[in-house]
Amino acid sequence: MRLYVGNLPWSATEETVRTTFEAQGTVESVALITDRETGRSRGFAFVEMPDEDARKAMQELDGQEMDGRNLRVNEAQERQERRPRY
What we know:
Elements: E1 2-6, H1 14-22, E2 29-34, E3 41-48, H2 51-61, E4 65-66, E5 69-70, E6 72-75
Antiparallel strand pairs: 1-3, 1-6, 2-3, 4-5
């Protein structure tokens, strides 16, 4: 299952996100989303875990504090198509 992890602190790295989620089970992958121009974190990530571990992570980590920010953890939604900008 793919999880959306929002409201991450700017100091978060893929490694800190992985460590946080490994306490709940097996982490298959972590993708920390960064700004193309600055390379800085955009404050959210996607974490892939087996279904059972992902449900546990959502239950345990949603609303938990990480460096002064309360995490938002839920199942990722499929990306909606965007209209082209003109």
